[in-house]
Amino acid sequence: MKYLIVGASHGGHEAALELLHKEPEAEVTILEQGNFISFMSCGMELYLTNRVIDDTSVRNFKPSDLEALGGVVKNNSQVVAINADDKTVHVKNTITGIETDKTYDKLILSTGVNPVQLPVPGYELKNVFLMRGHDWALKIKAKLEDPTVQNVVIVGAGYIGIEATEAFVDAGKHVTLIDTLPNVLGAYLNEEMSDQIKQRLQTNGVDVRMHEFVQAYIGDAGVLSEVETDLGSYTADLVIEAVGVKPNTDWLQGTVLLDQKGWIKTDPFLQTNLPDVYAIGDSIVPFSIPANKPMPIALATTARREAQYVVRNITSDNVNAKPFKGVVGTSALDVLGYSFATAGLNRTTADRAGVAMETAHYEDKRLPYFVSTQSGNGDIAVDLSYNPDTHQILGGAVLADGYDVTAHGNTLALAISQKLTLEDIAEADFFFQPGFDRQWSVLNLAAQHALGYGEFTR
């Protein structure tokens, strides 16, 4: 059996590993249009803030890793067309320009996304940067260390923009953060938690400008000097754009069915309209368990689950294959000391998906009140979002200052995937040890608060 995988990021890597494990004698080839295999953009901040060895270590795998298992990895290999009738892909070498055809029995598309660039006057000016991929990481790193770069404008207050903000604050630069949404990290956190993050950013000298729209980049002799919005202008030696992504699917137009925004359409088994052609990762719209419908969820964890599912079906008699269960959408971030984890929907994403939802916000101490602040006790906040009729948990987030809350985030992810209710969480039997948690876990208390149980003895 001959398998071709287009794209060497999380989904492509997982698919190759699974295939080589299940069918060691199969031909498994990854075709990657980029030169560097395979940079983890989600780990870029670690490189920018000197928390990894070097740029070459921020990767899922080296080609030799898969080759040792019997696979083949070809970089600088851009797939430009699919011929489903004779089961070939047309490949162009991005260095030499040489074009060839490669055959397949099964084809997995893991083409990913490209960063969006704002179509405003001046976007072509020098020092307007994007933040995705190995090449941009090297360029941004150089600017962090450049003493002539003092004023940095970050456009976009999502994960990528916040990571860029923290990196430049850490480097001693003055940062202005601009976003069209009214709240920092608005697609992940509700207002109560977002406001705490905003205050921490401002305390660290960041000029936070929410609900502003960039109108133009101003410069002289091709060099950026200013960012103009609908509400003001800001001095800028450098701009980092982090305004979203678009699917890398233009080359599939007319061959693979796409929706109006360019996302690859798949059936419940992640197969495209073409026989033996499957799609995974950021370029598709997976089924969201809490939304009960497909919606964009661009996460490495999502891509890997999809890859594992597809390989399990295409390497076996899939007569009894079940539709892809879907994903929750779970992530976490540290922002200047604040740690938060989020799962499922928040108010912004629920509105986008047209999902009716209510949210309860709860704040308390992380440990029993007899534990002193000096011993590690601190404030913790929990959001629980739920169906107002059934009380099914649809989303949640946990935020604390100087404390890792990701275990709570994983608990919420599991609760959402299993369609647990507020009542289930309110009564869940979590452990107690005063150095770690409360007699009632903070998740218990948040659910009891949402149900109106009232205050308990602390």
Give an overview of the whole structure:
The protein has 458 residues and is an alpha/beta fold. Helix content is 24%, strand content 27%. It contains eleven helices and 25 strands. The strands form seven sheets. The chain has a five-stranded parallel β-sheet with strand order 3-2-1-7-18. Strands 9-16-10-11-12 form a five-stranded parallel β-sheet, with helices on one face. A hairpin with a 3-residue loop joins strand 14 (223-229) and strand 15 (233-235). Helix 1 runs parallel beside helix 7 (300-314). The mean pLDDT is 95.
Brief sketch in words of this structure:
The chain is an alpha/beta fold and 458 residues long. It has helices spanning 10-22, 44-48, 63-67, 134-144, 159-170, 191-203, 300-314, 347-353, 406-417, 422-427, 442-450, and strands spanning 2-6, 27-31, 72-74, 77-83, 88-93, 99-103, 106-109, 113-115, 128-130, 151-155, 174-179, 207-210, 214-220, 223-229, 233-235, 238-241, 245-247, 277-279, 287-288, 293-294, 330-335, 338-344, 358-365, 379-386, 393-401.
Give average pLDDT, whole number.
Answer: 95
Strand arrangement, major sheet: 3-2-1-7-18
Q: Structural class, from secondary structure content?
A: alpha/beta
- Structure summary, number of beta strands: 25
From the alpha carbons, calculate the radius of gyration and give it in angstroms.
23 Å
Shape label: globular
Tally of contiguous helical segments: 11
SSE topology sketch:
Layout: E1 2-6, H1 10-22, E2 27-31, H2 44-48, H3 63-67, E3 72-74, E4 77-83, E5 88-93, E6 99-103, E7 106-109, E8 113-115, E9 128-130, H4 134-144, E10 151-155, H5 159-170, E11 174-179, H6 191-203, E12 207-210, E13 214-220, E14 223-229, E15 233-235, E16 238-241, E17 245-247, E18 277-279, E19 287-288, E20 293-294, H7 300-314, E21 330-335, E22 338-344, H8 347-353, E23 358-365, E24 379-386, E25 393-401, H9 406-417, H10 422-427, H11 442-450
Parallel strand pairs: 1-2, 1-7, 2-3, 7-18, 9-16, 10-11, 10-16, 11-12
Antiparallel strand pairs: 4-5, 5-6, 8-17, 13-14, 14-15, 19-20, 21-22, 22-25, 23-24, 24-25
Helix pairs in contact: 1-7
